[in-house]
Amino acid sequence: MKIVNTINELRNEIALQRRHNKKIGFVPTMGYLHQGHLSLVHISKQHSDYQVMSIFVNKMQFNDPKDYTTYPRDYERDFALAKEAGVDLVFLPDDSEMYQNRLVYVDIEMMTDHLCGATRPGHFRGVLTVVAKLFNIVQPDVSVFGQKDIQQAVIIQKMVKDLDFPVTIIVAPIIREPD
To answer: What pLDDT was estimated at residue 122?
Structure first.
């Protein structure tokens, strides 16, 4: 399994796989992986040849800065789990790699300010912005999201349709860790 930290490294690796006619599967995460994440990789493998996983704790998704700083991170554990699940490449960028200027945001206001979004202002704008950036960077053929957050899955599908991203979105069933 390869681990890259820059957009250029990632794009070079994806280009190499495309030259070999590989179909790219993508599972975006914020890390601290569990069985639910790994099940998304297994589903992605059924629809693609080369598995990319991002691990990026997206500051834009957090309303409270304390939640961001205390979000659990264990990259060595994540790498071991990702490798075991069959991930070929992990993209582990830092904030400066992902957000040089932060001038452009993606939002679907009519869909993001209700339900979960009503109590988390700006959350889905952060989700949509980072997912749009990651889709542009990775350019996957298939991307798999968990059904655990159905509002997130629906707004990502809407963004993909409205912005004409050439990616198939798969919404996978919920997998829970055993108690």
So the answer is: 55
